[in-house]
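Input chain follows. Return structure tokens only.
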Amino acid sequence: MKLSSLFQRSLLAASLVVASLAQAQDIKLGYNGDLSASPSAQSGHAAVLGMQAAMEDINAAGGVLGRKLVLVTRDDMSQPPKSIQNMSELIDNEKVVAVFGPTNSGNAMAWKHIPNQKKIPVIGNVGSGTDITKPMSAGADNYMFRVSMVDRDQVGALMAYVKNNSASKVVGLMAETTGYGQGGLKDMQEIAALQGLKIVATERFAVADTDMTSQLNKMKSANVDTVVVWAQGTPIAQLMRSMEKINYFPTTLTSWAADNITFYDAAGKTLANKPIFMRTVSESKNPVQQKLFDRIGGKLKAPSSFSFALHGYDSVQLLAAGIKQANSVDGAAIKNALEDLRAPVQGVLKTYNKPFSKTQREALTAPDFVWIKWNDGRLEPYSDPVIKGLSQSDFKY
């Protein structure tokens, strides 16, 4: 009897030790994105720096559920097959609670079925493709969230600008032939139709093209005075150089990829000043953002990539709030909590009040974006009479 009682007490003590150890285990979070290969790698690198800073702050304050957050990174080198492999490794082998990323929108589209099947939340903080956060099928559970730009919201704003600009009378569209470019082109065509805009010319170019004069000459022949472009930073720069070759400079509105230092370097100081685009922040930082920049700015590949560090920081804060509210690291419980965050979450971009719901997956939307132009090597806020005259009713999606 005594031996049995002693055994039971020992078993109970051992169980308590195991439970205590389990409670003390770190909470693993994953990042899956390009950190080395494409021009967008600097964006992924910046997002990781922001995420690490957020985790340091959270851990210094006691962690989440009494446990530390740790980040496991995987470089997908901008390759969809590698990105798919990384996602499976992070979930199945590393046992991460959630995943952030990717850098390239096409990679998210290649693997988004995996976290949805395995019930692991994903918060994107770089890739902006419109369809990333859409459910796999109507009414299906959706484990995809985002704290970043959204292509369709950007396009909605750019097309509102075109619609309300009396100088824009003949409109053309241009896009690179990647999944990113063609997804943006689809958004541009659909929203142009919603705005009642007639598109007189549509041209495409490869991401590695260095001469787009043939496409531009067609635009010029059609008397296009305004062109909206969806491409990555370097090809947008090559487009601007091609405009210079034929001395044809229509009003040019572009995707936010024009904020990339690769655009500025390839276009040069004068040509870089021409496009108008949108971003989540300018280089005019508030005190909280400046404090974070002072902390990590020296590690950035380029100062212009700092906006992605802000996305990374805020995405971790939102996930941590979801885990705390769920009081669990179960994926389904975290997803449900994120869909109905009860307390505001203080980020470095803004304070998030119920940013997500069962149908809303975007923490940042068009009202959070700022109009931007390069000015003497800096990303400065931009305004003109058209922008000043825009109201929410002008935006159509």
